[in-house]
Amino acid sequence: MRYQRSSALFAEAKKYIPGGVNSPVRAFKAVGGEPIFIKEAKGAYLYDEDGNKYIDYIASWGPLLFGHAHEPVLRAVIEKAKKGTSFGIPTEIETELAKLAVDMVPNVDKIRFVNSGTEACMSAVRLARGYTGKEKIIKFAGCYHGHSDAFLIQAGSGAVTFGSPNSPGVTQGTAKDTLLAHYNDLDSVKELVKANQGEIAAIILEPVAGNMGCIIPTDVFIHGLRELCTQEGILLLFDEVMTGFRLAKGGAQEALGIDADIMMFGKVIGGGLPVGAFAARSEIMAHLAPEGPVYQAGTLSGNPLAMAAGLAMLTAIDQNPEVFERLAKKTEYLHKGIAQVLTEKGIAHHINRFGSMISVHFTDEPVVDFASSAKGNNDMFKKYFHGMLDQGVYLPPSAFESYFLNDALSYGDLDKTIETVNNIF
Ligand SMILES: *Cc1c(COP(=O)(O)O)cnc(C)c1O
After folding, report:
1. Which helix or strand (DSSP H or E) is residue 309 part of?
2. Which alpha helices (H) appear in 351-405, and where do they start and end?
3. 22 and 156 inside one domain
4. Residues 31 and 179 reside in one and the same domain
5. In what order do the strands lie in the sheet with 393-394?
6. What is the CATH number of the domain that holds 192?
7. Per the annotation, which location comes first and is thus the protein's main one (predicted)?
8. pLDDT of 230-284, one tens digit each?
9. 237 and 170, same structural domain?
10. Which stretches within 177-241 are classed as H helix?
């Protein structure tokens, strides 16, 4: 493939935008080479500025459950835009989306909309601290909760890819309130809770992790966390920015059969527009301004365009709940196909999968946490990534990212993808 125009656009972008991108993982630093620039996309396919076509496995990092430019979402956004894009004054559609989201997600009564997953997570932690009157939080190595200060402590994907898990600019004061445990290791959490008795406001995690590859929580781990939180008066925060409305209507809570205390959303809930949200029972949400004293606000929060896209997306999911089964089947098909090729070629690998999230790790060991994910053979990953890209399959440009399947992918696309893996190796 030729990437002339992408290359020129990247050179120009670098003059005016740090690193030429507005979010680091796009820059291909982990895999080498230069990013491609996308011109347009429809359904399962991306088209770049040089006219190359790709089967897309990132779906804008998750939001596009039905594929690119999904008609109901497009129509809703276009019609809404004609009536004004933002007022900073309440609108009916905010309540419509809130009601639908609250109906779909277990264990929540109220929801607050923000503009990104980062904002949702940072606000949820403030709410948890305000509600419990405690200051410390526990997070897990390799889990990503957006780029706010409190979370940039071993933060998975982008942050890890760049080898600066503790970003300059995050103060010691902030870092000391974020305690670090290990995913799927309940004892590591219990030790922290014991050593910081009565000081922990919240335990926050990706209920199925997607920022260190796709990592599935063990039953012992996830049920143990719930039990521990209930015993110790700690709030359990599920960061469902990736998993919400992707693993099931009710997200990971439904898929795993676990009740969390505060849930954070992003990605799918915005249908491809910038939306984040956090939700909980009334008793907790009552602490949020203006009902309560915990401050949180946003000029463009709940704007009509974002709400229209979100409402069209959640309505499509609500009316087509079989989409989850369909996606899980496609993902299983891809898993089996790739695994067969890699096994035949004698390439060490482990593939993790949950619903429509999947990741391929070039390692002998099961991948159950950040340390085991980091043991993957990165040279092999680079070869795989660039080989696939060059033959028209767009994968996440980092071994620490999950793929996100979308419903527009056909079995023909999946077969082509598996064939491409075979060609590369
Ligand atoms: C993407 C992501 C975020 C951050 O969301 P942004 O909209 O990028 O700010 C937070 N948590 C998880 C689990 C994510 O995958």
Report:
1. helix 304-319
2. 370-374, 378-390
3. no
4. no
5. 38-42, 45-48, 53-56, 393-394
6. 3.40.640.10
7. cytoplasm
8. 999 999 999 999 999 999 999 999 999 999 999 999 999 999 999 999 999 999 9
9. yes
10. 186-195, 219-232
For 77, 101, 270, 308, the CA distances from 92, given in Å and listed in that order, are 15, 15, 17, 11
Q: What is the pTM of this model?
A: 0.96
* CA-based nearest residue to 53, from 34, 69, 39: 39
**Comparing C-alpha atoms, which of 164, 175, 119 is closest to residue 24?**
164
Which residues are CB-contacts of 200 (< 8 A; sequence separation ≥ 6)? 134, 136, 137, 138, 179, 192, 193, 232, 234
Ligand 1 center to 267 CA (angstroms): 7
- Ligand 1 pocket member 184 (CB < 6 A): no
Q: How far apart are CA 186 and CA 369, in angstroms?
A: 12
CB 250 less than 6 A from any atom of ligand 1: no
**CB of 145 shorter than 6 A to ligand 1:** yes
Look at residues 244, 215, 219 and name the one whose alpha carbon lies nearest to residue 124. 244
Q: What is the pLDDT of residues 52-84, one digit of tens each?
A: 999 999 999 999 999 999 999 999 999 999 999
Residues with catalytic annotation?
144, 239, 267
The residue from 319, 339, 366 where one domain ends is: 319
Domains in the chain, number: 2
CATH assignment of the domain containing 343: 3.90.1150.10
Last residue of a domain, one of 319, 334, 350: 319
Residue 146 sits in the same domain as residue 225:
yes
Indicate whether 264 and 357 sit together in one domain. Answer: no
How far the first Cα of the chain sits from its last, in Å, is 18
pLDDT tens-digit map of 336-351: 999 999 999 999 999 9
Q: Are 338 and 416 in contact (CB under 8 A)?
A: no
Which residues form the domain of 9?
Answer: 4-69+322-424
